[in-house]
Write a structure and sequence with these properties.
12 helices, alpha/beta, four-stranded parallel beta sheet, five-stranded parallel beta sheet, Rossmann fold, binds phosphoric acid mono(formamide)ester, binds norvaline
Length: 314
């Protein structure tokens, strides 16, 4: 059964990849790959027998919810889906009370919400590990699965160039942090006004100085895609930004991954998208369904990567 080096992880929160070393991220990826192989071979791995994960959602989810819920079950535990529409949090019970109550009953808490500060508050008052299942600022569980997918398809992570074309928010932020921790050259192409938080870029550049990678922000999607090993995009309007959809369609019109983008990148480049996707907006249907797209491997890997997170920290 899978070998877990839990000493480095037990009890740790998973809120940002910035809180993890390259060595720790590598171990998470290796465990995820091993759990995937065991899963495919029908080998059970009940390393969290009898444990419970509470999963708070104030936003919609398909992949994150199913990955954590199926994942904890496959590890021998059980997941509780707690929609803010149903629990008292949605009626105004403070996050610090929710944290302390859940901590008395469960072994880990995953939260998907709007405010990143809310995730931090939850962790502050929780005595069990907290996992950030997406905030407006970061999406670290996604990027762990993405790094695993890159390793599977490319055999390495270090030294590869990843071009992210689109909105410089949560997914771009976590790609900047996680990619540079692992020695990637991360280039973000976003229009003015939609570029990543300068503080994230500063941290990514610090990471890059240690890992041998780089972190660059540009407004030019073609420059970003030059010689890229990985092309990545995400929706132009994230959850909670629906009212800005029309304005964003205009601002992002030239930030699409299409057959022209593929011509600029390396011929063997892979195409990634965290999903859900809006075809003919940030990515064409042709590219998304084309031979270079790994988006469904990437989605599947959420399951294996999230199992690795839970198995190590809970
Ligand atoms: N990529 C992602 O987080 O998907 P869901 O919103 O479906 O969880
Ligand atoms: N940036 C997107 C990611 C969805 C997984 C959002 O926040 O809606």
């Amino acid at each position: 059964m899978v070998q877990l080096n839990k000493d480095m992880f037990k009890g740790k929160n998973f809120i940002s990849l910035q809180d993890y070393t390259a060595e720790e991220i590598s171990h998470l990826i290796d465990v995820a790959l091993e759990l995937k192989a065991e899963n495919k071979a029908g080998i059970p791995h009940p390393v969290l027998q009898g444990k419970t994960l509470a999963m708070i959602f104030t936003k919609s989810s398909t992949r994150t919810r199913v990955a954590f819920e199926v994942g904890i079950y496959q590890l021998g535990g059980i997941g509780l889906f707690l929609s803010s529409r149903d629990i008292q949090l949605g009626r105004g019970e403070p996050i610090e009370d929710t944290a302390r109550v859940l901590s008395r009953m469960v072994d880990g808490i995953m939260i998907r919400t709007y405010s990143h500060q809310e995730v931090i508050e939850l962790a502050k008052y929780s005595s069990v590990p907290v996992i950030n299942g997406l905030s407006d600022y970061l999406h670290p569980t996604q990027i762990l699965a993405d790094l695993m997918t890159i390793k599977e398809h490319k055999g390495q992570i270090q030294g590869l160039k990843l071009a992210y074309i689109g909105d410089g928010n949560n997914v771009a932020h976590s790609l900047l942090l996680g990619g540079t921790k692992m020695g990637m050259q991360v280039v973000i192409a976003s229009p003015e006004g939609y570029q990543p938080d300068p503080e994230i870029v500063r941290l990514a550049q610090e990471n890059a100085a240690l890992s041998g990678g780089s972190a660059v922000v540009t407004t030019d999607p073609e420059q970003a895609a030059q010689e890229a090993d990985v092309l990545y995009t995400d929706v132009w309007a994230s959850m909670g930004q629906e009212a800005e959809s029309e304005a964003r369609k205009k601002a992002f019109a030239s930030y699409q991954i299409n057959r022209e983008t593929l011509k600029i990148a390396k011929p063997e480049a892979i195409v990634m998208h965290c999903l859900p996707a809006h075809r003919e907006e940030e990515i064409t249907a042709e590219v998304m369904e084309g031979p270079q797209s790994v988006v469904f491997d990437e989605a599947e890997n959420r399951l294996h990567a999230h199992k690795a997170i839970m198995a190590l920290i809970m």
